Amino acid sequence: MRTDSSPGSLPAREHLPATDAGPPVLDVVIPVYNEEKDLQPCVLRLHDHLERTFPYAFRITIADNASTDTTALVASRLEAEFPEVMSFRLEQKGRGRALRTVWSASDAPILAYMDVDLSTDLNALLPLVAPLISGHSDLAIGSRLARSSRVVRGPRREFISRAYNLILRGSLQARFSDAQCGFKAIRREVAQLLLPLVEDTGWFFDTEMLVLAERAGLRIHEVPVDWVDDPDSTVHIVKTATEDLKGVWRVGKALATGSLPLDRLTRPFGDDPRDREIQDVPKGLARQLVGFCVIGGLSTLFYLLLYTVLRQSGGAQTANALALLVSAVANTAANRRLTFGVRGSRGVVRHQAQGLVVFGIGLALTSGSLVALNAGTSEPAHSTELAVLIAANLAATVLRFLLFRAWVFPDGTVGAPQQSGGPYAPLPQRPMTRHTPHHLYDTSQFRAGEAADSTRRDATLRLKPVRPYDTDPGDSR
């Protein structure tokens, strides 16, 4: 990941100031669908816990996913009773849709969510959001699979959860331990750039968000949690698992083809000594040198091994040319991706062509050294040939790095995907307003059918879909 600043880059993380002014620091979203029995006990318990233990101002937002029972009435009563409680109404189902809509409109710097059944012990809430408040991390997740977690649930759910996370590790190279625990938090500036890239509107939303964040190099903090399974959960396991596997395939394909503009999520690492500016050294040079040297060392070993094999069945010049050609193609591909951060297929042919020009220079140096060696010694020893080739390759390596940096990959972003258009185009930013009693959102673009009374508590907010594909009537989640 690049550490330099670009138009879509995130700013450096900073500790949030301890102040009572402005919007609440934490906005906890509770997505619900037909939860008329569990909603009130959940909100009362969460509100009491935050009031007693959380040192910052907070807000609890109920996101009603098109409930058909009396959930909306319960939410309205709670909103009227507690000034820290808000209620949003969406006319379509989908936990991911609810989170993306509410998080995108929230003005709180820390955004979190938890399931209405409160299966996760609330004592983990402050440890969850503390790394985000301090500026240490970008996202935080509760983990039921951490070694120190204490979990009570049936063997079927335990097997499904562990199997799903093994699939993520094997297919998407995910390093986080628990993708589906309903206990997560994110910094607002990260959400503004990350959420438009997340396509799923249901249960796979969490996984997709975490995979993209991890691939972009964002820091994900994991908190071991105590978790008790809800036997009355309405989640359809088989259907959810099928949709999740489809999501894994879709995201894996997008990552493999380089169609996701993850460079929008780059951010400086803050006070990391590796990123401090060094006098008279161009920015990024130190990191590129390390990567280039590692790849160069591996390429040299590969070249020498290949040369030794080919030399046994042919002449020195032929063996040298073939070994250098194969290793040069591999070296260009590795440096393109790992050293200079160029991803995607755009420009790959031109880069390889330029790499072959650099190869030609290296071939001239090494071949010339062999010619000079043979001119001075009629039958040089194999060890002498290797020593001469190593010296010639060192000189060619220095020249190769300079040419790669100044000519082949001058900015390190040649192959980056475009940042406009397509299914991953950014959402328009919603303007915020502070004219509501709770200094919340600009609700003018979400409210449908406003009542004659101007007070905001007389009707539940109805949120419009934020994406064209959010209008899918077949989404039953």
From TrEMBL:
PANTHER family: DOLICHYL-PHOSPHATE BETA-GLUCOSYLTRANSFERASE, GLYCOSYL TRANSFERASE. Residues 453-477 have a biased composition (Basic and acidic residues). Its main location: endoplasmic reticulum. The lineage of its organism: Bacteria, Bacillati, Actinomycetota, Actinomycetes, Kitasatosporales. Residues 418-477 are annotated as: Disordered. Residues 292-409 form the GtrA/DPMS transmembrane domain. It is found in: Endoplasmic reticulum membrane; Membrane. Keywords: Endoplasmic reticulum, Glycosyltransferase, Membrane, Signal-anchor, Transferase, Transmembrane, Transmembrane helix. This is dolichyl-phosphate beta-glucosyltransferase. Its EC number is 2.4.1.117. It holds the Pfam family GtrA_DPMS_TM.
